[in-house]
Specification:
By secondary structure, the chain is α/β, with parallel strands linked by helices. It is built from 16 helices and eleven strands. The strands form two sheets. It has an eight-stranded parallel sheet with strand order 1-9-8-6-5-4-3-2. A three-stranded antiparallel sheet has the order 7-11-10. It is globular and about 65 Å long. The structure holds flavin mononucleotide. This is Nitronate monooxygenase.
């Protein structure tokens, strides 16, 4: 399969593994890139600079193209990870969720291509005006943080019809059928997160991998309660999609109560902090999208990439429909 994405980054499979803070370090990025797709490191708002330097070394050691994903709102508070990326010069940086513009020219000046995620049409227009190289159309069914406004397929159609920048589709793409669908629609590739969370190369804790494998299509929920209770200052429009668990069942819809900081809210914060240490998926956030229902086992990133590459069979079958 050859698309703008494969040509630009010398890939054999038109897939980018999404930057996932806490899940996608250098090992996952290197494994994905070794398999012919483009692997990305996810940098969180509390990532340690030494940790990032090490992940960059691990990814770069693979001598394949790789990328790093940053969060714009977090860079506005602390530009350190952005400066590290400018120094490392990966093949691709993604900067999403907040004020992307200040970073576009510096990245370009250092030869780094810029991708950014758009969760609605206006955001896609703004990113095109800023001069980003890739717009990642991210639908509401996607895992982790983002907008909860429009599903991937309607947003993809609208963006492809209205922007001239190469587009990748994100949110809910977990199998070759999904990749074939978005390529047939005109995307240059897919940006896939959840499907890589259960790879042995990922940093997802073991119980979270078990929970994702066990989850079905209906087992996710969207909201801000984990951010509020952990005091992570995500802008309110970017909630997170995670697996439902006992914590989300108890606190969904009670955001004001958590924000008010009652004794119960403080206890809830302690409960989440302890659960993260213990790997207790009843109370810890397990970020994943609806495609968690498509993840059937823990398996190496190379197998996930190879399965996605079977999209070409569906594309051939689709081509036969028109003779
Ligand atoms: C566990 C997890 C962590 C994520 N962390 C980040 C992140 O640090 N930065 C980012 O830009 N996107 C992050 N995302 C969102 C992804 O970039 C992407 O939008 C999403 O995974 C696509 O949907 P999918 O999960 O259905 O494939 C994360 C997603 C997941 C599942």
């Amino acid at each position: 399969m050859r698309t703008w994405l494969t040509e630009q980054f010398d890939l054999t499979v038109p897939v980018v593994s999404a930057p996932m803070a806490g899940v996608a370090g250098g090992r996952l990025a290197a494994a994905v890139s070794a398999a012919g797709a483009l692997g990305m490191i996810g940098v969180g708002s509390k990532s340690d600079p030494a940790w990032l330097d090490h992940q960059i070394d691990v990814a770069a050691a693979g001598e394949k193209p790789y990328g790093i994903g940053l969060m714009a709102w977090s860079l506005s508070r602390d530009a350190t990870p952005g400066m590290a990326v400018l120094k490392a010069r990966p093949d691709l940086v993604s900067i999403s969720f907040g004020d992307v513009e200040p970073w576009v020219a510096p990245m370009h000046d250092n030869g780094v291509a810029v991708a950014a995620q758009a969760g609605n049409l206006l955001e896609a227009f703004a990113l095109e005006d800023m001069g980003v190289d890739i717009i990642v159309v991210r639908g509401a069914e996607g895992g982790g943080h983002g907008r909860n406004e429009v599903a991937t397929l309607p947003l993809l159609q609208a963006v492809l019809d209205n922007v001239d920048v190469p587009v990748l589709a994100a949110g809910g793409i977990g199998t070759a059928r999904g990749l074939a669908a978005v390529l047939a629609a005109g995307a240059a590739g897919a940006w896939v997160g959840t499907a890589f969370t259960c790879c042995p190369e990922a940093d997802t804790f073991a119980a979270a991998q078990d929970a994702i494998v066990a989850a079905d299509l209906h087992d996710t929920t969207y909201g801000r309660i984990f951010d509020i209770v952990q005091h992570v200052p995500w802008p309110a429009e970017f909630g997170g999609r995670s697996l439902r668990n006992e914590f989300t069942a108890a606190w969904a819809g009670r955001e004001h109560e958590l924000e008010a900081g009652s004794a119960a809210a403080l206890a809830a914060g302690d409960q989440v902090a302890a659960a993260k240490v213990l790997g207790d998926t009843r109370y810890a956030p397990v970020y994943a999208g609806q495609s968690a229902g498509l993840v059937q086992s823990r398996r190496p990133a190379a197998e996930v990439v190879a399965d996605l590459a079977c999209a070409q069979e569906y594309l051939r079958a689709a081509a036969a429909l028109v003779g």
